[in-house]
Design a protein that fits this description.
The chain is α/β, with parallel strands linked by helices. The chain has helices spanning about 15-35, 65-70, 130-135, 170-175, 190-195, 220-235, 245-260, 270-275, 285-290, 305-310, 335-340; strands spanning about 45-50, 55-60, 85, 100-105, 115-120, 140-145, 160-165, 180-185, 210, 235-240, 275-280, 295. Helix 2 links the parallel strand 2 (about 55-60) and strand 3.
Length: about 350
Amino acid sequence: MSAATGLLFPGDLAGWQHWNRRQRRVGGALRSAKARVRPAPTASPVLHLPPDTVRTLVVIDVLSPSCRAAMLEPLRHLDPRHTAVLSPVADPGLPASGTWQPRAYAGTHDLPATIETVCTLGAFLPIAGPVSQWAKQRGMRHIVVQHGLLTPWSPPLADGDHLLAWSEADAAYLTGGHDGVTSEIVGSQLLWSAAQLPPADIRDDGAVVLGQLHGTEMARHTTFGVYWRFCRSTGANYRPHPNESDAASRALHRAMRAGGISFEGSGDSLADLGRPVVSIFSTGTLEAAQRGLPAWVIHPDPPPWLRDFWHRYHLGRWGEAPTPHWEDTSEEPAAAVATAMKQ
C-alpha cells in the first residue's frame, strides 16, 4: 500500500487526534459562538450494569445507524447477565432481553474490576479513549469494531487493539505497518442487515446523487464540481447529506438550484425511492447495491486514494457494471462480533 492511498497517520493515534482538532477548530469556534447565544444541554455518559458479575463492557460513543449496527446488534448474542454498556445517553436502545441498571458515569473509577473484555468503536473517541487505556493497563482485551468505510483520514488503531474488520482488505488497510495490533474478519452488520430485506423495486430510471459536501476527504470545490457536471449532464437529482447544514453547504445548494439542478428531498429511504444511486464514495452506494438497486461511483479524475477505495469496496464506476452485492459472511456479523468478545 502506497503513502498516497494508505492511512495518513498509520500507528499514530496522537498525531491523528492533533490533526483532527486542527480540522475542527474553525467549526468548533462557530459552534461555540452559537452556544453562547443558545446553550445546548450537556449529557453525562450512563453506565448500564447487568444484574450479575460484569465480564464484558461495550462502549458506544456514537449512536448513528452504522454505529448502532456495529455495537448494539451484537448485544443480542451476548449474555445480558454479564454484559455492561457505557453510552452517551440514558436510553441507547438496548435489547429488551436484558435487565440493566443505569447509573451516572464519572470516569473509569466507576467501572467494575471484574471486566475481562472491553469493546469500543476506537480509542480516538472521548468515552472509549480513557476506557481503552484503563483496560490495557489492567491486562484486559480491547476490541475495536469497524463501523464504516475506511479512507486515508480514518483514525488509526492504538497499540494493543484487536480489530474486528469488514474484510481482509480493510483489516490490512488498518493494521498495515503496525505490529502492535491484531485483527480478524467478521463482516459488516450494516450491509448484512440490508441484504436480508426484500429487493427494492425500480420505480424511476433517474439517478439520485448522494451528497458529501460536508466531508473532509475532498475540498468542497472539488465535490461541488463533480456533482455540478454530473447532474447537469445527466439530469440526476441531488440528495444533500443531513450534515450539509452549514453556511458554505447551503450557499452551494443555492448555486446548484440556480444552475437548474433539482434536489431530492422527500426523506424517503433509497430503497423506497427505487432509483439508481450515484456517489463519490458514500456508504449509501453499497447499501443500495445490497437492496438490488443499480449503484455507481463518479469522479472524472479520481486521486489515487479514491481509486484504491473504489477497488477495495468493489464499487462500480459510472458507465461500467454497477456495484455488485457485498459478499456475505457465513455467520451474521453481529454474532461473529459477540463470539470474538467471548474468546
